[in-house]
Write a structure and sequence with these properties.
Elements (H helix, E strand, L loop, with lengths): L1 H9 L5 H13 L4 H12 L4 H26 L4 H4 L18 H15 L7 H17 L5 H25 L1
């Protein structure tokens, strides 16, 4: 089933505007870049400092749980290493595939922002961006759908863990 989903997505590639858009969206998630920038802006303002700290904590939990623990424990090969027909659109990542770190960090940060009490008008765009980043990893050919789904669930979990930790120590 996952191979069929990737094949359907691969057939969408080749439209320059869509390829460029998805590559750019995927790049925003590299190392949690966009979420780190958002966290820095939030930390810089006293009014949103708590939300920024919440976001940083969720991102750190995502890094530990997803990238350092789960990826190395599961050690799943990336789809382009298994499916000869799959043509990735970006530089080949060096780490394992499961779960998606981009999806995990994106959903960790978006969940943290939603739970932090920040103005609710920012939470919907945060989740839209998280979904786009997660889907971009399928489009650029570096993850299986289950990698992305597991990354999303890991990120949601990290956001809620960050909330529990913040409540415990505040």
């Amino acid at each position: 089933m996952e191979e069929n989903i990737l094949l359907a997505i691969q057939q969408l590639t080749g439209l320059p505007w869509l390829d460029n858009f998805m590559i750019a969206v995927s790049w925003l998630g590299n190392n949690g870049l966009v979420w780190c920038v958002i966290a820095v802006f939030l930390l810089a303002r006293p009014k949103t400092r708590g939300s920024g700290l919440f976001c940083v904590l969720a991102l750190l939990l995502s890094l530990l749980l997803c990238n350092l623990l789960l990826k190395n424990w599961v050690a799943r090969l990336r789809p382009y290493e298994v499916l000869a027909w799959l043509q990735p659109l970006i530089a080949l990542p060096a780490d394992f595939s499961f779960p998606s770190g981009h999806a995990s960090s994106s959903f960790a940060a978006a969940t943290a922002l939603a739970l932090s009490g920040i103005n609710k008008k920012y939470t919907i765009p945060a989740f839209v961006l998280a979904v786009l980043i997660a889907l971009s990893r399928l489009y650029v050919g570096v993850h299986y759908p289950s990698d992305v789904l597991a990354g999303m669930l890991t990120g949601l979990t990290c956001g809620y863990l960050a909330m529990a930790i913040m409540r415990r120590f505040s």
